[in-house]
Amino acid sequence: MADMLEQLPRSMVQRVPAQVRAVMTQLESAGYDAYAVGGCVRDALLGRDPHDWDMTTNATPEQMKEAVSFHSIDTGLKHGTVTFIVEHEPIEVTTYRIEGAYSDGRHPDSVEFATTLEEDLSRRDFTVNAMAWSDESGVVDPFGGISDLQDKLLRCVGNASERFSEDGLRVMRALRFAAYYGLSVEKGTACAVHEKKGMLSAVSGERICAELTRMMESPDGNHLADIVSQFSDVMFQIMPELAPAYGLDQENPHHDRDCWTHMVDVMAQMEPDLALRLAALLHDVGKPSCKVKGEDGVAHYPGHAEKGARIAETLLSRLKFPHRIRDEVVFLVAQHDSWPAPTQRSARRFLARCGDEKRARRLLALMKADRRAHAPNSVEGKFDELEQFGVFMESALEEDAAFTVRDLEISGCDLLEKGWTEGPGLGAELQRLFDLVLSGDLPNERSALLMAARDPEAHSA
What we know:
Number of helices: 24
CATH superfamily of the largest domain: Beta Polymerase, domain 2
């Protein structure tokens, strides 16, 4: 704890933006308190650069606007918030406040201004977010946030059940903070998370998506997997499509763990890439509904990748994920079981199927992780093939080959000059040339492509 407290003043002085400092200085000069509060203090204690700077003060909105000379916007007067525009940057300042009951599990029924900083901090969700700092006072930490940070512990401020009852989204925030910051969830807080998970049903998909996105970008995939496993019931609350995989015996010699554990283990191996981690968590979501057992008693899952892609699309659409993320995950889930042969031609076709290098690398990473999470006696041969395939893929990338029709060294305009007309025939001819390049039978060179292009009249005849 001492090390954190010794480093914080220097850390804050270095990190506080000039715009924030300017507002603090004017409030303090007018005789009011002015504190940086919440996540920025937490991140500074951890040696990170805060993304957001929140401020709190004992001045009312009217007093703030009298004390601070910068242009102000009344962004939330009933909640005590004023936004000052300093050098084109918005700086939000909120009056100390306490909140009434949360009848809807989302918003306080009433907000009252408080007189002390500790009253304001007492309404916050977790101890690591209930700290404040100023030059004069240093760290104000009435609920033990510094100690919890050093112990890598996530703990609610006050009664955990009451905190989650106030806002159901805090259930997801608990998982997000624990995963992202490498924290364990304190026993009482963990019990309340399980108890209050049903409140997430009243939370919008957009809000859940925002928390899940930050959670999936956790720097440590193994710790993320631990949190997802510990709170699988919460994950099933927001993604009920995953629940049938829990405890599903795969009854196949290639697998030594249930379907849910397998998917979580694959996710643990992924780098902090939102689309890749979501695809890993969802890649076998289609298996429960596709399971069939042969006469030998071994289970198989025909069509599970395609079924999983459809499930993933429905799930991610419901949670309002951006189209680009949804489309990427759906593609990866649909293709994860299409194992490529370790050949140069297969590498070219793989890249063409993916359409770009980044997607190809994601798909190969998913395939490798999927194979690692199989039973040990079934891994070695297939994994070696994937490693060999990776060499061929790198070679194909170095060739700067064509992986889509757009990559050809000629275009439709060139075929129009040869006498082709706009229409399906022209597109089919470009596709034919592309297939020849893809198979290695024709170099992606302008002269070779023009020579190989068929005469439109002879072709139509």
